[in-house]
Design a protein that fits this description.
single chain, mainly alpha, Four Helix Bundle (Hemerythrin (Met), subunit A)
Length: 234
Amino acid sequence: MDLNALRKPADGLVSRWINRRVSLAITRRLAGLPITPNQISIVTMLLGLASGVAVAQETYALGVLGAALLQLQSTLDGVDGELARLRSQCTRLGQWLDTLSDDLAEFSFLLGLTIASSSSGSSGLATLGLLGLTAYAVAKGILYTLLATVFRSGNLQDFKWEVGGPRSWTARIELLFKHDFLCLFFLILALAGRLDLALFCMAFGSFTMLAKLLQQMLLKRVRAAAAVSDGGDR
């Protein structure tokens, strides 16, 4: 089987050109071993959590280590899905583990940055981080509830955003806030000693995600109400 067929159309720029090349090479070597996709998901989840622990220590070396662990998590995150598709082992549990791996990694990293800012006396950054964490948790809580009760899925891609097409300016901007791009960007910031900018990016992304989600929910309600009204007028 051509492993390139395991790529996903929804891959971001970094996944498409960098991460997939590495993950497909790893998948090729793991294909014949008794390692399950869910086991890979758990490993990537632990890497994501460890990244937050590292950056919370407020040192340059551990900041770089934390960002490197986050980039490693992002790269290995493709392996579980590739193995599942290769072996026809896709499951609902696997979907949820894959989704939680990315989300816990992002939450852990932002939490670590917030703790580091608080420890260094940057109260403004720490407050921004707390607000970003709150927005992130609320948005993901809503999305998870919708996935579990409406879409019956653990795959965030099953939630269809209705505003903007694939070539719209909003869709292009969103490529810069995809998990794969952010992980590599944060590693570059860590090497430059500017992880404070990563906190700004993550907080802004959290606020944007929550605002867009609320907009989507309002839009769906308005359209549903309009449909009922049109039906009653006939």
